[in-house]
Specification:
The complex is a heterodimer of chains A (319) and B (50).
Chain A (H helix, E strand, L loop, with lengths): L27 E7 L4 E2 L4 H12 L9 E4 L1 E6 L7 E2 L5 E2 L5 E8 L3 H11 L6 E6 L3 E5 L6 E2 L5 E4 L14 E7 L1 H4 L2 E5 L5 H7 L4 E11 L2 E8 L6 H4 L10 E7 L2 E5 L2 E7 L4 E6 L12 E5 L2 H8 L3 E3 L2 E3 L2
Parallel strand pairs in A: 14-21
Antiparallel strand pairs in A: 1-3, 1-8, 2-10, 4-7, 5-6, 7-12, 8-9, 9-13, 11-12, 14-15, 15-19, 16-17, 16-20, 18-19, 20-22
Chain B lengths: L6 E3 L1 H5 L3 H7 L5 H19 L1
Helix pairs in contact in B: 2-3
The chains are: A alpha+beta (319), B mainly alpha (50).
Amino acid sequence: MSVKNVINCKNRRANTGYGNCTVDLAFIAGFIWAPDNYKIPTTTVAAAITKIQTDIINDVFELRLFPVPGIVAPTDNTETLPVVTYADGSKAVPRDVFFDWTFQNGGGRFCLNYRLRALLNYQNKSFFFFDKNGVLWGTDTGDGMITAIKPNLTWANVPKLNTGAAPTEYLFNVNYDATLLADYPAFIDFSKNGGYAFLKSLSGLQDVDIAKVTRAANVLTVSAFTNCGSSNLAELYPTQLAAANQWNAFADLNGAPGNALTITSVTYNANSKSFVITIDTSDPDYVAGAPIWVSLAGPTETYPVLLTGYESAPVSIVV
Amino acid sequence: MKGDPIVGFNVKAVKNQKKEQFIKDHSHLDPKWLEKKYDEIVGKQAKEEK
């Protein structure tokens, strides 16, 4: 049958009955920043959990999820439904509204706000929201999966001053076409798989700053501190990070990381609370005296060992 | 240094090195300890390969 000039008037027909168990958009307690058009499989809750956990520590930044739990005060600034009144007194709704939500975050404080503001420069800005009933909300794009909602506007505000009567507020805004959630909802109920506690426990990677302590030829001593909170990873993981497979080293290529260099060993230095990385001088890419770039191994390497997600950018260590 | 240092070796890389180079590359560690370690790693590796 041809589809020419056929309008699907009945594609959204519905009845108004409901049973004892109804879904409710409860208190939004967090969101997950996702790549645009990101999809979570819905075959089983376990499959959804695996997908989420895998992509939180994805080594590829552009494929990664950034969970933000800890919303303490959501505010709905959604516009009033626009209604026009004609000369004869009848009224019409010219369009539906855009949701306009503001989230105040209670965890992460300035650190998290700083990172969310940095992510505003990132081209991918789509979101899942989760509520206190343990339900993750996205939109239905007709492919059997739950898809991240792409807002019209995403903004992390500058901090709102602590007045002495209220703590500093860190506010995050999203504005998006309300029909994506109200009329094309897709959700996963995690209540039998950890529920809200599972969703709230999702934690993003922590940025780590690597810095030179000393360097003597192929022996590099570096420190590793979390960018937020300045926790020394050498104190937290002296044994776990004293492992060659937990670090990466690269030869210098025109002032940027080039080919990978072989790390022969990593030693924990208890005196300087740092790590001593020994580069294999027989590696064909090793050039005596040239800068060497060092970073932690990717999150998929470090997470199984440290059980917390970290990531560091390669840093040039010069003689 | 009291006791053994906390070191994680890349066994595959060590196996490809001569003992002299291994000791020279690890200028920050005790050569006597390194010599023992090298024998242990390479010996262990050889045993595993049998």
